[in-house]
Amino acid sequence: SNGSIACKFTTEAISAEADKDFEKVEQELVFEANAITKTVEVPIIDNGRYNLNATFKCVLSEPRCVGAAGVTITMSEHTECIVTVVADENTRKLYDNVS
After folding, report:
1. What InterPro entries is this protein classified in (predicted)?
2. Residue 30 · residue 4 · CB < 8 Å
3. Domain of 80: which CATH number?
4. What are the mean pLDDT values of the chain's consecutive 10-residue runs (99 residues total)?
5. Could you tell me the residue range of the domain that residue 31 belongs to?
6. What pLDDT sits at residue 22?
7. Are 18 and 44 a contacting pair, CB within 8 Å?
8. Spatial CB neighbours of 37, under 8 Å, sequence gap ≥ 6
9. Of 53, 62, 70, 96, which residue is least crowded by CB atoms under 10 Å?
10. Taking the mean position of all CA atoms in its chain, how far away is CA 85?
């Protein structure tokens, strides 16, 4: 593209809970001309308790061309990824030994 492309980035809970296991993120990503990557931070919340592995997904949607009217943009088939927050092994071993 000769211009900028923007899309929406959101997180969605699966087995992990937003604002308990991870901070919910919703923002617009802007890719300048020739850019192909972006880094997005999704803070993981350490609540100090033992948790099982938990998952959430990151979703890209609503693509648009910035500053160009009448341009249609289509997302590829790869618009989501699944993130697994892995339980702390030391806490897991202690929990398993007690139960």
Report:
1. CalX-like_sf, Calx_beta
2. yes
3. 2.60.40.2030
4. 85 95 96 92 84 91 84 87 82 53
5. 4-98
6. 93
7. no
8. none
9. 70
10. 12
pLDDT number for residue 99: 47
Count structural domains, the chain: 1
| Residue 1 pLDDT | 46
Q: Looking at this protein, which amino acid is placed at residue 2?
A: N
* Predicted pLDDT of residue 46: 82
Query: Which residues lie closer than 8 Å to 2 by C-beta, 6 or more apart?
Result: 33
User: Shortest CA distance to 13 belongs to which of 26, 22, 1, 4?
Assistant: 22
Distance of CA 23 to the CA centre of its chain: 10
Q: Which of 28, 23, 2 is nearest to 83 (CA)?
A: 23
Question: Is 26 in contact with 9 (CB distance < 8 Å)?
Answer: yes
Tokens of 12: 């969605």
- Neighbouring C-beta atoms of residue 59, cutoff 10 Å: 15
